[in-house]
Design goal:
Layout lengths: L8 E4 L1 H11 L5 E4 L2 E6 L2 E6 L13 E4 L4 E6 L4 E6 L1 E2 L1 H14 L3 E3 L11 E10 L1 H19 L8 H24 L5 E8 L2 E8 L15 E12 L5 E3 L11 H8 L5 H4 L9 E3 L2 E10 L1
Parallel strand pairs: 9-10, 12-16
Antiparallel strand pairs: 1-16, 2-5, 3-4, 5-8, 6-7, 10-11, 10-13, 11-12, 13-16, 14-15
Helix pairs in contact: 1-2, 3-4
Pfam family, one: DUF6414
InterPro entries: DUF6414
Length: about 290
């Protein structure tokens, strides 16, 4: 057992892992959920295993998967006892098996090198995981309004009407910002950014496969990513549009600049806000992640 096989995942696209292994192994001979009933009669013990399952949450449970007919049988005629054994797999052990296959067959490329990278390549890279900078900016902006509301002083009696009008305006602004942030996630996918000295990786991840709903717990951590390349920007003349999944992607760059100018006025300059970016300049790649792990 090698150390790199002992992974701690924060994201596994279980469907891709299962589909790839089914292709590699030319189908599964057995896929069933581990469950059994035990019957004792005259000191003889029999175990019957059943419960076939092919639901979407199949890999989130403990699985019994016989990939190569790995079924052993031993019997004792003196006691008339029969035992059947099959290997037990989890989603992580299947991921490890898939990664081992890619390594052994020299299919998996390591490191970020756009000159030696093609669309369709399986790659494994590592770096610091960050939020989509556009979503990150919007989230911080909303938090600023929330914190300002907590620490704001109560208005004097004569200024309550004006304060109420200002509060309503702020609430409307926050609502619009939240709606915009939701638009970036409406497809059920969310972009993560992995920074590397040689370039940037944009991970188009599906939220349903994240092991923790609280994304902030994994942001800033150092992770490895196993995934498949779907787009490549080889130099600074090319870029990845962070709005590509939204209806805003049809707007010209001049109109977008004017639209976002309201977030970069004199009032916001006093805060330590991150850079507002709608594009990632090359060298950069878009990757569909199979797994994100430490």
């Amino acid at each position: 057992m090698k150390a790199d096989q002992l992974m701690v995942p924060v994201y596994i696209n279980e469907k891709i892992v299962l589909d790839m292994l089914a292709i590699i192994e030319d189908g599964f001979s057995t896929v069933s959920q581990v469950s059994y009933t035990e019957h004792k009669d005259n000191s003889n013990s029999q175990k019957l295993e059943a419960g076939v399952s092919t639901s979407a949450t199949l890999l989130s449970k403990l699985l019994k998967i016989d990939l190569k007919g790995e079924l052993s049988h031993s019997g004792n005629s003196g006691e008339n006892e029969s035992v059947a054994k099959e290997k037990v797999h989890t989603n992580l052990s299947l991921l490890s098996k898939f990664r081992t296959f890619l390594v052994d067959e020299k299919i998996l490329k390591s490191g970020f090198d756009v000159t030696n990278m093609k669309i369709g390549d399986f790659i494994e890279i590592e770096g610091e995981l960050q939020k989509n900078p556009l979503i990150n900016y919007m989230d911080i902006f909303v938090d600023l309004f929330r914190m300002a509301d907590i620490f704001s002083e109560k208005p004097q009696l004569g200024g309550k009407t004006q304060a109420k009008a200002q509060k309503q305006q702020e609430n409307e602004t926050v609502k619009q910002i939240k709606s915009f942030a939701d638009e970036l996630k409406h497809s059920g996918t969310i972009d993560f950014i992995l920074s590397d000295a040689a370039g940037t990786v944009v991970l188009s991840a599906q939220e349903q496969y994240l092991s923790n709903d609280n994304i902030s717990e994994i942001i800033g951590g150092h992770f490895k990513i196993l995934g498949k390349v779907i787009a490549i920007c080889k130099d600074e003349t090319e870029n990845i549009d962070l709005l590509r999944k939204t209806t805003l992607s049809i707007l010209p760059i001049d109109l977008l600049t004017e639209l976002f100018s309201g977030f970069q006025n004199d009032d916001t300059k006093q805060f330590n806000l991150p850079e507002l970016k709608t594009q990632i300049s090359g060298p950069a790649v878009i990757v569909i992640p199979v797994a994100i792990y430490a």
